[in-house]
Amino acid sequence: MFGNSSGYYLQLNNGSRLRIAAGATLGTSTADGVIYMASGTGGSALITADSGSNIQLAAGTALRLRSDNAGSNGIAGSFNLAGEGALHLDSGTVSADAATAFTGDGRLLLSSGGALTGSALVTIASAFDWTGGSMAGTGTTRLLRDVSLSGSGARHLNRTLEIAAGRTLSLGDNVTLQRSTSNGGTGGIVAQGTLLKSAGTGTAYVTYLDLSGNIASSSGVLSIYGNAVGTSLNGVNASTSGSGALRLDSGLFTLTNGQTFTVSGGRAELSGATLSTSGSTLITGGGVFALTAGTLNGTGTLTVTSGFDWTGGTMSGTGTTRLDTSVTLTGSGTRTLDRTLEIAAGRTLDLDDNVLIQRSTSNGGTGGIVALGTVRKAGGTGTAYLRYLDLSGNISANRGVLSIYGNSAGSRIAGAVLSSNGGSLRADSGTLLLNAGESAQIASGTFELSGATLTATGNSSLDGAGTFSFTSGTINGPGTLT
Q1: Do residues 88 and 215 share a domain?
Q2: Averaged pLDDT score across all residues of the chain
């Protein structure tokens, strides 16, 4: 029992083993104790604890476990922590290469300068505090108890951290969990329970890590950075409640063929990061996926069945974003569309006053809307804008003005079904294009050519029960427009 203040410690040299046998107790009484594993270059030392042994830690004291980092200094067994003190890994690397458990009502502390590594499973059912330092290795650390982290020290995670079902790892303001490199490496969180930003109105950070399971915020901001080689969102169930926000703020996130990202409640924002998709992918759930900044890109088809909001940022790539949910957009932020945006049959994309969706260039480029459902100006008496895009499907103005600008290289309108039902639908600038054999339909109300150019490159047609109104602009081209 360590019980004086004279700085005494137990040193384990190369080849030494300290075994805490069943029924035995190691601990502190009135002062800190130190166990120093000094195995030297190429050496090793080992501390083991049998089931039924105890580490008794007096209030206000710590048993400090230190390693010289020169060899394979390890721990294994069942460490039952009792009392109000702490078993403190505060310096050097300690490796768990055989099953290791921390149990009891005492506390395990990992701080700056300390490192827990190894290939085995480490289970923590005792109280646990992590203020700094690192976890590494090919093994898994499993939290079997609710844990709350606070303070700004960086915690480096280069192994798997698993939060057991029914348990919560709560992050306070300024807490950072991060892989030691932003480009590659290993390390991730498997939240069978919940990783939660819960305390304070500030921000906590989870950076460069693989993620799966339940990720949530109930107060302040949980800011997530993707790894430069891609952080998969497959199997992530994101949610917010109360005043919480969850943001993908930087780096690269991925969804590949057959993978799903779930927003089960509240709102998850793509806010400065890139989400790259390939193949057939899905965003689902009862919450809202919001594109506020950053980029959604890639190939294949991303289907969104959750709620969706788009206030800024870019969609790009050769793929398609399919909205299989009805959406209302508000606000004047520019939404850049350089890929195909499809509105599924039976769904609506409603545009309020000052909403702008546009291709990034007015001369060429790619990007368009396929409205198997309907794109409509539905809210307010002002104007919404579709600029430089190819358009097909149902385009409608039900209230206010829907102003269409053609691309100077020609915005294709083949297959467009145009209508105005209480609003004004106008082509105000640029060039709209119908090629040979193509047609567009004015289904009801009036479609007004008001400053734009309508070019027919071959025999093509405008038909339907509605009215074509030519108030200004130009109709040209070598073909016959019927």
Answers
A1: no
A2: 96
Tell me, yes or no, whether 269 and 333 share the same domain: no
CA dihedral 205, 211, 212, 216 (to 10 degrees): 10
> CB under 8 Å to 157, separation ≥6 — which residues?
134, 135, 177, 178, 179, 187, 188, 189, 209
User: In Å, how far from its chain's centre is CA 151?
Assistant: 23
Q: Which amino acid is at 469?
A: S
Cα 309 versus chain centre, distance: 16
Q: What are 459-464's contacts with CB under 8 Å, separation 24+?
A: 460/434, 460/435, 460/436, 461/434, 462/434, 463/439, 464/417, 464/418
Residue type, 360: S
Tell me if 410 is assigned to some domain.
yes
- Residue (of 424, 421, 319, 413) closest to 381 by Cα position: 424
| Domain extent at residue 413 | 326-481
Q: Torsions phi, psi of 30, nearest 5?
A: -120, -5
100: part of which helix (H) or strand (E)? strand 100-103
CB 362 within 8 A of CB 384: no
pLDDT exceeds cutoff 90 at 69: no
Residues 367-409: tens digit of each pLDDT: 999 999 999 999 899 999 999 999 999 999 999 999 999 999 9
How far is Cα 273 from Cα 226, in angstroms, rounded to an integer?
Answer: 7
206 membership: H or E segment, kind and range: strand 203-207
Domain-embedded: residue 180: yes
* 141 belongs to a structural domain: no
For the full predicted model, state whether its pTM sits above 0.85. yes
Strands (E) located in 311-406: 314-323, 327-329, 334-343, 348-351, 356-358, 368-377, 383-387, 390-397, 401-405
According to DSSP, the residues that pair with 161 across neighbouring strands are 141, 189
- As given in the structure block, the two tokens for residue 314 are 């870019």
Query: Could you tell me the pLDDT band of residue 71, with boundaries at 50, 70 and 90?
Result: low
DSSP 208-256: S-EEEEEEEEEEEEEEEE--TT-EE-TTEEEEEEEEEEEEEEESEEEE-
Which whole-number Å values give the CA distances from 192 to 124, 136, 164, 236, 463, in the listed order? 15, 20, 5, 10, 57
The SS3 assignment for 97 reads: coil
Domain count, the chain: 3
Residues in the chain: 482
**pLDDT, tens digit (0-9, with 9 covering 90-100), for 112-132:** 999 999 999 999 999 999 999
Question: Within 13 Å, how many C-alpha atoms sit on residue 383's CB side?
Answer: 10
Detail the DSSP E strand segments found in 119-163: 121-124, 127-130, 134-143, 147-149, 154-163
Note whether 83 and 108 are within 8 A (CB). Answer: no
- Nearest to 266, CA basis, from 299, 294, 236, 237: 237
In-domain check, residue 136: no
Q: Which helix (H) or strand (E) holds 453?
A: strand 446-456
Mean pLDDT for 21-28 is 94
